[in-house]
Every structure is written in C-alpha cells, then in structure tokens.
Amino acid sequence: MKDIYLYNSKSKKKELFKPIDVNHVKMYVCGPTVYARPHIGNARPRIVFDVLSRYFRVVFPNFTYVSNVTDVDDKINKAAQEGNISIKELTQKMLSHFHTDMSALNCLPPDLEVKATESMPEIIELIERLIKNGNAYVSDGHVLFSVATYTEYGSLSRRKLEEQVDGARVSVADYKKAPGDFVLWKPSSAPDPSWESPWGKGRPGWHIECTAMIAGHVGLPFDIHGGGIDLLFPHHENEMAQGCAAYQTKSYCNYWMHNGLINIDREKMSKSIGNVLYVDDLLEDAPGEAIRFAVLSTHYRHPLDWTDETLSIAKQSSRKLHLAKNYFPVKETTTHSQEILDCLADDLNTPKALSQLLVWAKATLNGDQKAHSLLCQGMRILGFGEVDIRSWQPKKTTITPEAIQQLIEERNIAKKSKSYEKADTIRSQLTEKGVVIEDTASETFWYWK
Prior knowledge:
- By secondary structure, the chain is α/β, with parallel strands linked by helices.
- Helix content is 43%, strand content 16%.
- The protein has three domains: 5-262, Rossmann fold (3-Layer(aba) Sandwich); 309-388, Up-down Bundle (Four Helix Bundle (Hemerythrin (Met), subunit A)), CATH 1.20.120; 393-448, no CATH class.
- Helix 4 (120-132) packs across helix 7 and helix 14 runs antiparallel to helix 15.
- The mean pLDDT is 94.
C-alpha cells in the first residue's frame, strides 16, 4: 500500500498517516444540526468524508465512521417556535430531509449516527468528570469549562486568548469566572427541552455533546476528526479541551481534517443575503452525481466558488462518465484502479482523480476496453455510477422516459432507412425537451441536459 498523506489542521501541514491501530481505523465527523433543510455547504463535508470512507475501506481491513446529529440547539428551539411545531417533529422531519438528500448525492450512511438527545447520560457523566478533575465549575445553575485549567487551549486554532474570546462571540455573563469560559450545561424550562441533572433541569451546551459521543462510541484518542473549517474554532477547540481534560490524555485525535467553505458567485452563502442553495432545490436542476462531481472538482481544503457554470460543467462531465461506463458491458471485479488510489493517498486529491476518470472515459469512447475497466473501478471508489443517471428527472420536464425511448426508436428506424432529415428533426425535438442523445457503435444513449 502506498503511503497516505493527510493535511492536519493542527500542525498546518501534510503528514504521513499512521493509524493508532492499522487493523481498525476510526473517524468521527460532525453531522447536521437538524433545524432546516440541508444546503450545499452542509453537503460538502458529507461528500468529502464519504470519499475518504470509501477509500479507507479499500486500504484498511476495518474502518469505522461515526457521525452525530445535533438535535438539541437554540436554532432548533427558535425554528420550532416559528414553525409552530414540536421540536421532535421538526428534528425528525429535517433529519429525514438530510438522509434523503445525502442519499441522492451517493453518500453512504456512517457506520453509526448518534443523536445528542440519546446521549444525555454520557453527557452528564462527562460533565461530572470535568468538575471532579477541577476543569469545570457550577455557577448560578450553569456548569462551565474553565479555560485557564487547560494549558493547551488554543493549540488547535492557534489563537491568543483575546482572539479566542472574540472568535467565539462569547457573552461575559456574571456567572463566568473568565470571559473565555464556555457552557457545558445551562438551565432550561418549557417550551425549550430539558433533562434532569445534578445541577437542576437543563440542557447541554453544543460542544460537550460531540465530546461525549466520541468518548462513548469512538474512544480517545482516535485517528481522524473531520468537519467544516468553520467548526475549527470554537467548536473543535472546545471539544479537544473537554476530552483531554476529562480523560487526562495529551491527544484527542491524531489528525484534524477540515473542508473549506462554499461561496455562491464569490459571495459568502448567507440567509441574510438570500443566496443559500438547498440540496433539494439543486436536485430539481441536476442529478445528484453532477452535484457530487461539482463538489469534488475542487480540492476539499480550498474554498469552492459555486456558480451556474460549475454545475453545468459537472452535469456534462457526469454524463460523459456514464456514457463511457455503458459503452461496454460492466464486469464485476474487486480490483481497484491504482491511479485513483494514488490520487486519494495524496491528501484526498479528488480533482486529479476526476481528471483521470475523464481521460479513461475518452479512451473508452474510442474503443479502449482496458480504459473502460479502469474507469468503472475508479468511479466505484469515488462514488459514481451506482445508479443510472437517467433515473433522475428534472422537475419541469414535459416528456417521460418512455416517450424519449419511443422517439429514439423512431430515429433509429429513420437512420436505417436513410431518412436523415427526419432523424435530425427527432434529435432537435429531444434537444428542445432538454434531452441529450449520444450515438455509439452499438446503440443510442440519452441523458437529461
């Protein structure tokens, strides 16, 4: 196996990946806060770490991927009140949206998905451990983490104390010993959710949830922690502080991986601007594989500038991959293309891997069966070709797949009888309906434009 190099956000450099246990690699990735439909920014980490998961399942004998669901949060409470529905109904509905959308993007589910609401005993036990160790204190019904008691605080984000406070946008409440101290548990009353605890009825702070779930289901230290770069501080900084302080370990995880953010036409995606792109809206105009291709066409660590052209190019490229895949019969194999594995070994270089797929696709369409075999192997590792791209249908189409096939058959008859003008007319009719047809030596394939 080729050496694997991953960029570690903590050291700010690529590092040789050395698993804690080569026979069982473990990864935790921060999951959704289920108060709204997922947007393309929420989808990016899911797609990125789905590729890493697929890759690691090829090169390691055992791999476990754990993610969380934040279903306790101020944003959830606010959204439920504004929508006049229960918190349980809201979170179940939005989690269902998330699962449906991620499946449409060909993301496999994690091995384990843990909800915060199902982890209260572990969260309370962790807070008690921090209090016992002298890293947390009770004040006015709140429990807070004392930043001063953890000397490594700031080592992940490399922020000075004053920057930590500013970046966290913390309020300097009377119950805090220091401005940078953050909440582990806070009082809560109806209509907000609450649980019984040694400190009265309340609910956990956001950061403690992930640490408790990791300690309970992954174990410390572990191999890889993933998430968006916007979580680096304060969320991941606080996670690490809590975990290391509670279990008195120097290492929380060995590799921190963060994906860059997505901008829309060079502007930050924001509800206030009104440029948020929700996944289910994008799926009305493009198949999930095209959206996946667009996300993976930029290296995961870099910002991704999303434009109409980005998606248009991705649609054309994903069509080409499927056309080439179907050019010859697909043979079942457990072999994996080494060129793609090598790309992924270099800090998950998906742009290079996709370029290689397109090279093989072109060669396949020129009759190269070896390139076809490599293409199918590479598509499988990267999460493409698992469903027929034609199973997706644009929302505003006025033609059915059955009608498309009928017109193609009529066109084939016209071509055989050398009625080329009629054949061209049928092609034009299909083009007007948003259908692209591609002729090969053996048959004609069609795709949505």
